[in-house]
Amino acid sequence: MNRSNTAPSALLLVALILLSGCSLISPKTQTVQGDWAFNGKMAIQNPTQATSFNLDWVQQNELFQIVLSGPFGQGKISIKGEPGRVSLTKDGQQQTAHSLNGLLYNAASMDLPLDYLQFWVRAEARPGKAFSIRRNDQGQINQIVQAGWTVDISDYFAAPINLPRKLVFINGEDRGKLIIRDWLPTSP
């Protein structure tokens, strides 16, 4: 009788160890929840302008650093941000704003949802804002509608990452396309 009570307890203990071990074994998933980084290529356009650039984004909790550059690193722009303050540095000149959206609008007269992008790249809606989502047959989010933008996620990296690879976001005549080359580990 004592033996039968020990077996279920041992199985329960093994199951708990395996479940807790899964979260430790999967650093990509854990990194995406707090700190994350990716590099890719982005193209944006509106009725009067169009441009494309390389994009490196490192997010550490609420702090972020974004580097934008043309082919071979030309025209490098560095953006650093924290809640309520974002600064852009290009050719030794610095601009500041209260948000990524505001900074981009001040610098290039383009209205893009960069304050939302940090959520959309992880197939999440920005918290606290109204949204709707649609899922594909595998249960992955393939569309987010939020703040007037429709975000189509047409491709994901394979397991174990399971994060978006290709996003297109559209609001009227403003549009963008992001192709993520790699999700990268961040340093602790």
Distance between the termini: 49 Å
Strand order in the sheet with the most strands: 6-5-4-3-2-1-11-10-9-8-7
Instruction: Kindly state the percentage of residues in helix.
Output: 25-40%
Characterize the biggest β-sheet: 11 strands, antiparallel
Radius of gyration: 20 Å
Number of helical regions: 4
Question: Mean of residue pLDDT?
Answer: 80
Low-confidence stretches: 3-31
Order of helices and strands: HHEEEEEEHHEEEEE
Class computed from helices, strands and strand pairing: alpha+beta
The portion of residues forming beta strands comes to 35-45%
β-strand number: 11
The shape, in one word, is globular
Report on this structure.
- The protein is α+β, with helices and mostly antiparallel strands.
- Helices cover 25% and strands 45% of the residues.
- It has 4 helices and 11 strands; from the N terminus they run ααββββββααβββββ.
- The protein has an 11-stranded antiparallel beta sheet.
- A hairpin with a 7-residue loop joins strand 3 and strand 4.
- It is globular.
